[in-house]
Model the fold of this input.
Amino acid sequence: MSRANAAASSKPLMPHRIRAARTAQHLAVRALTAHGLAHPLTLALLAAASTAAARAWDRGHPVHAIHPAPAQRATRAH
Done:
């Protein structure tokens, strides 16, 4: 097995619709943080994010594939 194939096989495959939904959501959050909710760019990116998420859902991808659960934190001893 070549080095490129070994590296590719160690990464989990992410269908392009899930990747598109995550990217759109990330860009929308960045625009929201920088410009606020009423800015036209933010509104356009939020619309794109919701459309991408809906397309992924329609293709059968579960919500947790788009929005993975946060990592569990260790509890501290008191």
In short: Helices lie at 3-10, 16-35, 40-58, 63-66. Residues 1-11 have pLDDT under 50 and may be disordered.
